[in-house]
From TrEMBL:
Belongs to the OMP decarboxylase family. Type 1 subfamily. It comes from Vreelandella arcis. InterPro entries: Aldolase_TIM, OMPdecase, OMPdecase_AS, OMPdecase_bac, OMPdeCOase_dom, RibuloseP-bd_barrel. Keywords: Decarboxylase, Lyase, Pyrimidine biosynthesis. Homodimer. Substrate binds at residues 13, 35, 62-71, 121, 182, 191, 211-212. Its EC number is 4.1.1.23. GO terms for biological process: 'de novo' pyrimidine nucleobase biosynthetic process; 'de novo' UMP biosynthetic process. This is Orotidine 5'-phosphate decarboxylase. One of its GO terms (molecular function) is orotidine-5'-phosphate decarboxylase activity. It comes from the Bacteria. Coiled coil: none annotated.
Length: 235
């Protein structure tokens, strides 16, 4: 497995293993990690993880578990046993769920990073009100980030707009994995809380998740190179 210093994680949101591998084969494990989400994993199962590991990539399995503590702990263990670099759950599942998952990794001596989704980057304040959350969006993200840290997790998924405040609350080493990354050339799509790659790094994001701005670009490799150039990464 290649361990890259790049903060970039490319989201392989594709409907088939073939389509995902076609993109993976154009990418270099020295330049990025890859993210496997619900669509691809539901269609292709663990085979996709094996295929990406075989190509030298570290994999973030983004299945956002949210269930009772025993079920989530067992799912996290199953993911980690596949050797994934990172896996996640929803912080709104609560302390007992997060502690059970984090403890399971420790008990089984599994070296997978476990992070929690705070508030989805596709949501804005009005969406939180609709689901009955009366705190502001920033307060909710901060609360869930602190709860994730207290529960023994390695970091959170948040928008880059919250990265600075999470760093002051939870420390530099606490991972801030930020989707909603939009270079100036890309459309926002369904993302609400967005930031450019360079501003996200300046704000304290430790990892940038980029999907459609690369995978749906007319020339994905040019789009990736433009993001790397913006970040001052030499190709
Ligand atoms: O809050 C979240 C959590 C996860 N995601 C995932 O990240 C990528 C983003 O893809 P883009 O095409 O760059 O929008 C996608 O796989 C989401 O499932 C997120 O966007 N926000």
């Amino acid at each position: 497995m290649h361990v890259t210093e790049s903060p970039l994680i490319i989201a392989l949101d594709y409907p088939s293993l073939d389509a995902a591998l076609c993109m993976a084969d154009q990418l270099d494990p020295a330049r990025c990690r890859l993210k496997v989400g619900k669509e691809l994993f539901t269609r292709s199962g663990p085979a996709v993880i094996e295929a990406l590991h075989g190509r030298g990539f570290e994999v973030f399995l983004d299945l956002k578990f949210h269930d009772i503590p025993n079920t989530v702990a067992s799912a996290v263990e199953a993911a980690a046993e596949q050797g994934v670099w990172m896996v996640n759950l929803h912080a709104s599942g609560g302390r007992a769920m997060m502690e059970a998952a984090a403890n399971r990794l420790v008990q089984q001596r599994l070296d997978t990073r476990l992070i929690a989704v705070t508030v989805l980057t596709s949501m804005q304040s009005s969406d939180l009100v609709e689901v009955g959350v009366s705190s502001s969006l920033d307060e909710q993200v901060s609360r869930l980030a602190q709860l994730s840290k207290q529960s023994g997790l390695h970091g959170v998924v948040c928008s880059a707009q919250e990265a600075t405040s999470i760093t002051s609350l939870c420390g530099e080493d606490f991972l801030k994995v930020t989707p909603g990354i939009r270079p100036a050339f890309a459309a926002a799509n369904d993302q609400q809380r967005i930031m450019t790659p360079s501003n996200a790094i300046r704000a304290g994001s430790t990892h940038l998740v980029v999907g459609r701005p690369v995978t749906q670009a007319e020339n994905p490799m040019e789009a990736l190179a433009a993001i790397e150039a913006e970040l001052g990464i030499k190709a």
